What we know:
Layout: E1 7-11, H1 16-27, E2 31-36, H2 41-49, E3 53-58, H3 64-78, E4 83-86, H4 101-129, E5 132-137, H5 150-170, E6 175-182, H6 197-204, H7 214-223, E7 235-238
Parallel strand pairs: 1-2, 1-4, 2-3, 4-5, 5-6, 6-7
Helix pairs in contact: 1-7, 3-4, 4-5
Amino acid sequence: MRHEGRTAVITGAAAGIGRTYALRLAGEGAAVAVLDRADGTSVVKEILDAGGRATAVQADLTDPASVAAAQEEIAEQFGAADILVNNAGIYPNQPFESITFEQWRAVFTLNVDALFHTAKVFVPGMRERGWGRIVNMTSNSVALVIPGFTHYVASKMAAIGLTRGLATELADAGITVNAIAPSLVRTATTEAGPAELFEAVPQMQAIRRVQVPEDLTGMLSFLVSDDAAFITGQTMYVDGGLVRS
């Protein structure tokens, strides 16, 4: 119960990696807010049935007003957030020359701008209490680019820049900010993409199997705990040894 007494907000937690994060932190005592554009009640039911605390809040993460309203709703139920996990994102696959500016902006609006919006509304509560943990999801593709993902890779590199900037500015308030960079993770969404990636990517890893969401939960739990109090501004590659730095 290392997170007992904490409130965690996890974006994109209605399914996939975010769902697994929500179950892990709730299982370790945190009250979890499932913040998603989709309906997260099924995840909340799992947590409640297991004796945990959770709520589902629907919001458009690309809309500052919607994010602000979500923050108020969460605060009414659980108080100010201690932990913010920016997990929501999109990863379209298309050649650069076919990408329109609208498509480019759509990727950045969710993968980067949404991180700004959530930080703006949840950081004040963390600063007031002198403690906070922010974890942004990036990708190991920033170190090993696969063709067809230029806009995605650019957005994930921007997320690392935001992580480092926030870590520098918020350290005096007891807030740490780090990023997790996974490999290709098997979820319902990624399985809809090119099947050959699930054959090719694991062969480049030291651990030659397809990554699953549960592979990421240990790092998340550590980074949002007191054990990681002296770690900030870092990008943690949890990718089976694909990136070896």
